[in-house]
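Next comes one such specimen:
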Amino acid sequence: KKKKDGLIKTDTGHSSTSSTNINLDTAVGIYKTATDNSYKVGIGSTNPQATLDVNGSLGVSNIAYLNGDVRVAGDQITFTNDSASAYIQSADSLYIESDYDNDDSNNKPIIFQTSATERMRIQGGGKVGIGTAAPAHELSVYKAGNVQVQITGTNVSILNISDPNSHGQLNTYNDGTFRINSVQDAAGTQLVLSGP
């Protein structure tokens, strides 16, 4: 026997603007708004603020699309609009964490890719690799051929190098000199190199 679709109607044959709600049970309802006479579905909510308002956990076993541009499937969130930028924003602190359940001995990295190529990673132990998937130091930079690391300031550019017992600096000044300081105070021992 062929099954027929069911249909639930309210205000049949009328153009009433009165609030007419459909309560399927105590947790699920279709509610008519008094402002624009539209209907909104509330699950766990008797005052839904969106077309579908779920107060509780929402499970999707296949693919969910948000606004047509955001695809959520399995363990991936994909921004599918190829002509618009995508943003991940927070009004407060923003945490990006790998191995949140801490069951892999800190070996799971955070990997940054562009054009399907890895560019940078932060190892589970905190070492950062740029151009390398196996950073050997706290910061490892690799590129086949020549590589440059640039530090630029409008007045003085400083690279601080220190350990618990000593402190050193590499400085460039806008007077054209390059200085190596043995202490943080510029009045300490210096080796000054200048151009012609």
